[in-house]
Write a structure and sequence with these properties.
The protein has nine helices and seven strands. The longest helix has 18 residues. Strands 1, 2, 3, 4, 5, 6 and 7 form a seven-stranded antiparallel sheet that branches. Helix 6 runs antiparallel to helix 7. By secondary structure, the protein is an alpha+beta fold. The chain folds into two domains: 129 residues, Sandwich (Jelly Rolls); 101 residues, Orthogonal Bundle (Arc Repressor Mutant, subunit A). Helix content is 40%, strand content 22%. The chain is globular and about 60 Å long.
Length: 259
């Protein structure tokens, strides 16, 4: 297992790159709430990354790039085999990036630019050349449509515990009554509070989670049937129907479009 932590950021440098790779853990990998003076671009290569900003949860499957502005308090959860590339961006260079947490589908040119800036050869780039590449990266991100798929996360401790467990085990078929008993509240209270904090029902939230976790599995090479059953669907056809209703395309069309 390769694991490289974030380096010390030199404020004189426009960009500071690092990468991580961590094995799958049963309940995912959690990063406590924190902020940093720099902005941060995150390229998800494997796993499913969820970043909770001020008001929303970004969902990033493989092939997505996320953005956290300077000074924004955020926490993160990474499910599955976690591998990603990070670029810290000096605060005075963030004006052309959004002022809120954002995500975009990865395009080939953006992927190549990040690889050049954050890869082994990046340290050898002259400052002027690195700035030119970064300028092109910002231009390309500005042309990409931002992702509209976010996952609302509850804040109350018991509801957050439920959410994290379902993210880690999307095939958990426990009833609302069973979960209510585990959380020491009535089923009606659980449903009311969950909807009050997320804006959607627990059933709708579970479906979002299953589709997101299925994206992770399919991106890792699992067949549709295996992915559908692994996240709790009774059949591949039921999964494909839910996927099409959410993303507007079938799983094969989704990955062809984002190739």
């Amino acid at each position: 297992m390769l694991e490289q932590g974030p380096p010390t950021v030199n404020p004189a440098h426009l960009l500071t790159a690092f990468s991580i790779e961590r094995a799958r853990q049963a309940r995912g990998i959690s990063v406590p709430a924190h902020s940093h003076a720099e902005g941060m671009l995150v390229l998800v290569q494997t796993g499913l990354a969820l970043v909770q900003g001020n008001t929303e949860m970004l969902t990033m499957a493989p092939g997505n790039i996320g953005w956290v502005p300077p000074g924004i308090m955020h926490e993160a959860h990474w499910f599955g085999h976690a591998r990603g590339t990070f670029l810290y961006v000096r605060a005075d260079a963030c004006a052309r990036l959004p002022g809120h947490t954002s995500a975009w589908p990865l395009r080939p040119l953006v992927d190549a630019l990040i690889d050049r800036l954050a890869g082994p050869a990046g340290a050898a780039l002259s400052p002027a050349y690195g700035e030119r590449l970064f300028d092109i990266l910002l231009t390309e991100l500005g042309l990409c449509e931002q992702s509209t798929h976010t996952l609302p996360m509850p804040r109350e401790r018991r509801l957050r515990e439920l959410a994290v467990r379902l993210l880690a085990s999307p095939d958990d078929g426990s009833s609302i009554e069973t979960w209510a008993e585990r959380l020491n509240m009535s089923a009606r209270t659980l449903m009311r509070r969950f909807r009050g904090e997320t804006g959607i029902t627990l059933g709708q939230w579970r479906q979002k989670v299953r589709l997101l976790r299925a994206l992770e599995l399919l991106a890792g090479g699992k067949p549709v049937t295996d992915g559908a059953l692994a996240v709790g669907y009774d059949s591949p056809s039921a999964f494909i129907g839910s996927f099409r209703a959410t993303y507007g395309v079938t799983p094969s069309q989704y990955f062809a479009r984002n190739a």
